[in-house]
Structure formats: C-alpha cells, structure tokens
Amino acid sequence: MKVIFAGTPEFAALALASLHAAGFDIPLVLTQPDRPAGRGLQLHASAVKQYALAHGIEVLQPLSLRMDSADPVRAEQARAAHERLLATDYDVMVVAAYGLILPRSTLDIKPCINIHGSLLPRWRGAAPIHRAIEAGDVETGVTIMQMEEGLDTGPMLMIERVAIDAADTTATLHDTLAALGARMIVATLRKMEAGPLEAVVQPEAGVTYAAKIGKEEARLDFSQSAQLLGRRIRAFNPFPGAQAQVNGVTIKIWGAETLDADTLALPGQVLAADAAHGIVVACKSGTLRLTELQKPGGKRLPAAEFLKGFPLAEQRFD
C-alpha cells in the first residue's frame, strides 16, 4: 500500500516513523512550512519534515491546500500541491495533526484517514489532550477515522481507550497517545490491505469541541477551585505553562498537588512557604501545594529550591 502522509508535530512524526518502519511505501509527505523558533527566531523544520528528509522521503510544504484562497500566494501553492497529489501514485492519505484544513478537492482524490487523540465524538478539534485533562476526564484514547469536510466528524474505523492518571500532564499523555496512534494506524492499514473496513458513524450524543489553547488561558485565577486549577496546571504543561503573578513578577507553575482543606484566607494568599510544608496557596475552595515553579529567566525548580531564591512567605498571588 502506498501512503501519502500529512502531519507536522512530534505526535505525527511518531506515526510516520511507524508506517515507514512497517514497510509502507511513502512517496510524499505534506507538512507545514518551517516556522521561526527560539531566541534567534531562526526557521525550524517540523518534526515530520526532519524525519522525512532523514529517510529520503520527498517533502511538500504548501501554505494552504485551498485553491479558492483569497491570498494569491496561498492559492497558487494550493494549486501546485493539488497537481502534485494528482500526479502521485498512492492509495490513501494518512493525516495526523497536520494543522491545515483538507478541502473537498483533496479529500476527493483518494481516501483520507485521520489519527485523532480522543474518544470521538468527545473533543473534536485542535486540543483534545489538553481539554480532556482540564475537564477532569478519567479516560481518553485514539480514534482512527475517515476524513470528511466536517471538523473530526467522519466515521470511525478503530478506537482504543486509555486511562488518564491523576498525575498525567499534557506532555505525558501526549506521549502515550502518540505511541498508541502510531501502532493503531499500522494495524488499520494492514486491515485495509486485507479488505474493506467497517466504518462506524459517530453518535450524535456526547459531542464536545476542543478549542485551540491560547496563551491568555495560562493565567491562574485563584478565585476558582483548587481542583480546577490543579487540572489546568497539568493541562497547560508544557504549553502554554500555567502562571500567576506575585508582586508584579510572573511565575510559571509547572506542578501542584490539590489539597481538600478549606481556609478563610483570601484566594491567592500564600499559607505556607517553607521546606517543611512547601508552597501552599488558598483557592476559592480547597488549597494548592505548588511543587514546581520557575521565575523569569530561571530554571524549573522544585518548590524547596525555588524558595531559596524567591521567598514567598506572607505573599499573595494575583
């Protein structure tokens, strides 16, 4: 089976590597254009592009696949990409976290299959891993689905479940689901080689949407419950990183434990800040023990180490 692969970040690169290792013929890879990153804002290739080039696979990086784009540059690149797809001998396109919309003109060429990091129809959209943790879901998983024009609405070919551990962050759960998706897409294509697969239409009940994570969401509001804030700290690790201000200084908070004990103190008040008790902060209900923090220009540190250079006794997070 000949497979065109479309994807961009590490989640997708693991799937590409799995398909390549399984012996599938991959004549072409689509990925987003190189982006500026780091302090010098130098252009960096996506994880998918890096893997493809290292293994001699042709890479195409259009700004868009929509030939009707109002931007003439994007429209021209989309037309060129469309012609390249038409000229390529392939059986299926596999898509994983590509980041570009596949228009009808692309979907109509050959079947397109997506690797999605949730139990559809829950958490359709851009940030299913973050939103599952933030919402307090006890499980998630990976769905392999046929693509159509709707946002993650296509019929399902395979689905597997994974428990969300109380200590899981987006970083750890991402790695679990990426490995699962990489295994599942190989299994799915093997079954397709043997014959048609049954596609199950997604149920109408239980649809939720995982909106893209914005940097503005990183700010913690201690007038909310400790349970919710603890989930957000986990959900926003590694991006965008939860944060709060104390005396005008923005502190990143990478880890926390939720404590049930309520307090009469104002939300955000630091109740303890020492080696014996750690950093305990009052919330609307319950309290948070902050376990890993980072000051501007500093490293991520355990609470005890952080306090040596940034005392917090009798302070209040805004």
Automatic annotation (TrEMBL):
- Per the record, what are the reactions this protein catalyses? L-methionyl-tRNA(fMet) + (6R)-10-formyltetrahydrofolate = N-formyl-L-methionyl-tRNA(fMet) + (6S)-5,6,7,8-tetrahydrofolate + H(+)
Q: What are the residue boundaries of the Formyl transferase N-terminal domain, all occurrences included?
A: 1-188
Keyword rRNA-binding among UniProt keywords: no
* GO CC annotation: cytosol
Residue span, Formyl transferase C-terminal domain:
212-310
HAMAP family, from UniProt?
A: Formyl_trans (MF_00182)
NCBIfam families assigned to the protein according to its UniProt record, in alphabetical order: fmt
Function, in words: Attaches a formyl group to the free amino group of methionyl-tRNA(fMet). The formyl group appears to play a dual role in the initiator identity of N-formylmethionyl-tRNA by promoting its recognition by IF2 and preventing the misappropriation of this tRNA by the elongation apparatus.
**Family, similarity comment:** Belongs to the Fmt family.
Q: What is this protein called?
A: Methionyl-tRNA formyltransferase
Biological source species = Massilia eurypsychrophila
Lineage of source species: Bacteria, Pseudomonadati, Pseudomonadota, Betaproteobacteria, Burkholderiales
By which gene is this protein encoded?
fmt
